[in-house]
Amino acid sequence: MNGGDGISGLVTIVVVFWILIDDRRQGLHDKLARTFVVRA
Length: 40
Description:
The chain has helices at 3-21, 28-33. The chain contains 2 helices and no strands. It has one domain.
């Protein structure tokens, strides 16, 4: 295991947690691109 594995795992956990608590279920990438998912 190298040093990048721990950082990558931590970033993944933060992104998933962010999506779970966000009202619009936007990930950080969605916020940066100003996009969102529309359920059809």
